[in-house]
Write a structure and sequence with these properties.
The complex is a heterodimer of chains A (447) and B (291).
Chain A (H helix, E strand, L loop, with lengths): L1 H20 L1 H31 L7 E7 L6 H20 L3 E3 L4 E3 L1 E7 L4 H13 L5 E3 L3 H6 L1 H7 L4 E3 L15 E3 L10 H13 L4 E7 L2 H17 L3 E8 L7 H10 L3 E5 L2 H14 L5 E4 H5 L1 H8 L1 H4 L3 E3 L15 H11 L10 H19 L5 H10 L4 E3 L2 E3 L14 E6 L5 E7 L13
Helix pairs in contact in A: 1-2, 3-15, 7-8, 10-12
Chain B lengths: L1 H29 L6 H19 L3 H28 L4 H24 L15 E4 L2 E4 H23 L1 H11 L1 H6 L4 H27 L7 H15 L6 H19 L7 H12 L13
Antiparallel strand pairs in B: 1-2
Classes of the chains: A alpha/beta (447), B mainly alpha (291).
């Protein structure tokens, strides 16, 4: 339209000149003018095309996130959200995040909704963030349960999902490029150090049988299935008890008695924070003892569990050693000590949300977002995908090395196996005991 | 394993008797459903946690304080809410909506004030280690909680059947209109019953950390569902039927955990459906309820 109108106007002017200076000269002049007009029109088209490829920089980058301020997942969700918010506030305090596509710093606008630990509410809110708020970047709520509903929604809308800690194996498929796991290893590989340790040092210490008790959800269910598979594949330790319980389970006395009746050497309890608190309290109360007891959150949310369970019930319990208790040398963002100090300053101890692995996961997700925006060609969701995957194996943070499988599963941040060992009166130290290259202490196996 | 499940179930069920007792008392006297019952239980637990962390009070002492405070708090809440509710055309249905709102408010205010994280009391306060009953190892805390529950049931029984106020309460349970016509101060009798109900919920809350592991602001809804199943099984409106409902729930839960653990959380709903289909008046119920 612009081409047509501008050419027509110029041609008309040329026509006027032709009538004054003779026909040949006039034709030449007209031809020249036509070429000029075409060139001008092409120039305008090119300019328009270029403007389309690099539109004007937005006033803010909209980041959508969900959190659960109440409900069973609040204790893992709020630290993630607070950790992420800490990063957002830091970035905005420095003038915004560097966005390569626009060659400047742009402030972040965090649009966050409370799903109250309800998957139904979360599904509605994921939709709202994508279709109503039109967020540029979408951050999932913490944990597999609240992430599970976001995965198909993000895929359907072709919106890239920054999956903070939803480790369920089913989330990652080759036909879905719109997801990447940020801060936890995918559940199918996460627990392999447990089976490796039991098959190696455990067998030497007389461990021959194991009981696996898990909460039936994507997160712990996948880990339990993976562990069972590892034990059966290796054939060194026999699984004598393998049972799931609802995630809402709050008493384990009868379950522990049933396990004890089978006399296993090792007991692996895989649950969320509330499950682990109830299990560890009931285990101590029951008086049953096993050579090896593992619980996910005993180490992952050590402060939270310790204050509810007590030191004696936690002594010599095995757990994962999360980045909040293990020092990695970061090449981007704060070190663990710096982050802990920043956390305590922003959320003083006793203010409601304890420092732990999930706090690190929230902050670490912010770092991935920062690096992504610093390298992405545009805010197109496939460009975001490409930028995130380009970080794989190169980004080293306080959470270890960020490394993605081609389906988006995290395979780099595998946590060492640790043990809560006494360190002075009424204190426990989470010591990394396996694998040997990451260990900073020796395991104590026995009742 | 079968014996262990049954023994543990009876003890565990006694605690759930305490949880459901107050809910049933309120329904029996006022014909309203207090959907905030579980939230008052949570507040009882939070009170015990606060009294321990601030003043080092033993849970048994806290339980005494909670009984007095919750009983007194129940009186004004009753006068503020219930008489107006009972004047409405469908007070049972409206009570569901109103107390659901109160439940949400309590949860939200507690979450805002204290955060959403778990809180608990040290296990040592009720003794660490097991007691062995019929070859089954049970936590000492369970035994103490069950004893407290049994005492509470006994006290409620003595109140209803051995005191003048209890007799008046039973009269109101039979017919509120007739009780009013005979000159009984129905509102006062109901207010005391409401206060007792909150006190029972509060005591159950004090022992919740020892039975359920920890307290969280959002625990009320799950507690309500279970408590409702317990009182429907035991007979709605019959406080002492709650004992049977609690034990049936406890034993069924432990059997489910032993033989079909993945499905254990379906139990309250299964029990509710089964009782409503087979014996809607509850196991101890009669076609025409008598107090």
């Amino acid at each position: 339209m612009a081409h047509w109108s501008s050419a027509g106007r110029l041609t008309g002017q040329g026509g006027c000149i032709t009538s004054r200076n003779g026909s040949d000269y006039g034709r030449l002049l007209i031809k020249g003018m036509e070429m000029k007009s075409k060139l001008l029109a092409m120039g305008m088209l090119l300019a328009a095309g270029s403007a389309q490829a690099q539109p004007a920089a937005p006033a803010e980058i909209k980041v959508g996130a969900l959190y659960a301020s109440s409900g069973p997942y609040a204790s893992i969700s709020m630290p993630v959200f607070d950790g992420f918010k800490l990063w957002v506030d830091q970035v905005n305090a420095s003038g915004g995040v560097e966005v390569k596509a626009f060659g400047k710093k742009i402030p972040l606008k965090l649009i966050a909704y409370d799903d109250q630990s309800s998957t139904a509410t979360a599904a509605t809110l994921y939709n709202q963030l994508i279709t109503q708020d039109h967020v540029d970047l979408l951050i999932a709520d913490s944990g597999s349960v609240l992430t599970s509903v976001g995965v198909p929604i993000a895929k359907e809308h072709k919106q890239f999902l920054f999956d903070v800690s939803g480790t369920g194996a089913a989330f990652f498929t080759d036909d879905n490029p719109y997801i990447a796991l940020m801060a936890d290893p995918v559940s199918t590989i996460w627990p392999h150090y447990i089976s490796d340790f039991l098959g190696d040092e455990g067998v030497k210490a007389g461990i021959k049988t194991v009981a696996i008790l898990y909460s039936t959800n994507d997160f712990t269910g996948t880990q339990a299935a993976a562990l069972k598979g590892f034990f059966e594949r290796d054939g060194k330790v026999k699984v004598v008890y393998y049972q799931g319980v609802p995630t809402s389970t709050s008493n384990y006395t009868v379950l522990i008695n049933n396990i004890a009746a089978l006399n296993p050497d090792a007991v692996l309890e895989l649950g969320y924070v509330g499950n682990d608190i109830a299990f560890l309290r009931n285990l101590q109360d029951s008086g049953n003892q096993f050579k090896f007891v593992f619980s996910i959150y005993a180490g992952t949310e050590k402060e939270e569990i310790e204050k509810n369970v007590g030191v004696s019930a936690l002594t010599n319990i095995y757990s994962y050693v999360p980045p909040s208790n293990y020092v990695y040398k970061p090449e981007a963002g704060m070190t663990q000590q710096e982050f802990h100090a920043a956390w305590d300053k922003k959320y003083p101890p006793g203010s409601g949300v304890a420092f732990g692995a999930n706090a690190v996961y929230g902050y670490m997700t912010g770092l991935v977002v920062e690096q992504t925006l610093a390298t992405t060609k545009s805010l197109d969701q496939m460009d975001i995908h490409n930028a995130v995957f380009a970080l794989s194996g190169k980004l080293k943070t306080l959470d270890g090395t960020f490394e993605l499988r081609k389906d988006g599963a995290q395979i780099g941040e595998v946590t060492p196996l640790g043990q809560l060992q006494p360190a002075g009166k009424d204190e426990l130290n989470l010591v990394a005991v396996y694998p040997p290259d990451l260990a900073n202490g020796k395991a104590v196996i026995g009742k | 394993m079968l014996t262990g499940a049954i023994v543990a179930g009876v003890v565990f069920g006694l605690y759930y008797t305490l949880v459901g007792l107050g809910l049933n008392l309120v329904f029996g006297v006022m014909r309203i459903v207090n959907l905030a019952h579980g939230d008052f239980l949570m507040l009882g637990g939070i009170s015990a946690w606060f009294l321990f962390t601030s003043f080092g009070l033993n849970p048994f002492v806290s339980a005494g304080l909670v009984v007095v405070v919750f009983l007194l708090v129940g009186l004004p809440i009753y006068y503020l809410v219930v008489p107006r509710l009972l004047r409405s055309r469908d007070s049972e249905m409206l009570s569901l909506i109103l107390f659901f709102g109160i439940s949400q408010m309590i949860e939200a205010v507690t979450t805002i004030g204290l955060g959403a994280t778990e809180r608990s009391l040290p296990p040592r306060l009720l003794g660490v280690g097991p007691l062995v009953i019929l070859g089954t190892r049970l936590p000492k805390a369970w035994i103490f909680s069950a004893l407290v529950s049994a005492i509470a049931v006994l006290l409620v029984y003595l109140y209803l059947y051995r005191t003048r106020l209890g007799t008046l309460t039973r009269a109101v349970m039979v017919s509120r209109e007739e009780a009013l016509a005979t000159g009984i101060d129905v509102n006062f009798v109901s207010a005391v019953a409401f206060g007792i109900s909150l006190a029972l919920a509060g005591v159950a809350g004090v022992f919740a950390p020892f039975i359920l592991g920890s307290i969280t602001p959002n625990m009320g809804v799950a507690i309500n569902i279970t408590a409702f199943a317990v009182i429907v099984v035991g007979t709605l409106g019959n406080p002492l039927g709650t004992l049977l409902g609690g034990i049936i729930y406890g034993v069924s839960l432990m059997l489910m955990q032993t033989y079909l653990s993945s499905w254990a959380n379906l139990l309250p709903n299964l029990l509710l459906i089964a009782v409503l289909l087979i014996r809607p008046e509850g196991i101890l119920g009669r076609k025409t309820r008598r107090a």
